[in-house]
Amino acid sequence: MNDWIHHPIYTRLMAPCEPFARHALLHSIELELVRLECCPKLASRVHQFIDRGVPYFAPADAHYREWAARAASLWDELHARSGSEQESSLV
């Protein structure tokens, strides 16, 4: 998971002073999914991730760090599938 520590999404989720960004990120991931035409397996993974919600902020906890890394991974996969060069304001 150390590969993610410099990813802008991961960094944003680890920032203690921006709690709203964690919820806004889930919404942005959902919006990216809507922009894609048809990717049922990816849609299922994204919905499972979003349905879980934002866990309790605990950056020292391995489970929280894994959640943040998963968010970054899904974000990258959605952008790769959409071919979008547009960057979100969250990144």
Q: What is the CA-based Rg, rounded? A: 13 Å
Secondary-structure element string: HHHH
SS-based class: mainly alpha
Proportion of beta-strand residues:
under 5%
Number of domains: 1
Average pLDDT score:
85
**Main beta-sheet strand count, sense and barrel state:** none
Overall morphology: globular
Q: Stretches where pLDDT falls below 50 for ≥5 residues?
A: 85-91
Supply the number of helical segments. Answer: 4
Count the strands? 0
Euclidean distance between termini CA atoms: 19 Å
The portion of residues assigned to helices is 55-70%
Question: In words, what does this structure look like?
Answer:
The protein has one domain (2-82). The two termini are 19 Å apart. It is mostly helical. It contains four helices and no strands.
Outline the secondary-structure elements.
Blueprint: H1 8-14, H2 19-35, H3 40-52, H4 62-82
Helix pairs in contact: 1-4, 2-3, 2-4, 3-4
Give a short overview:
The chain is mainly α and 91 residues long. The chain has one domain (2-82). The protein is built from four helices and no strands.
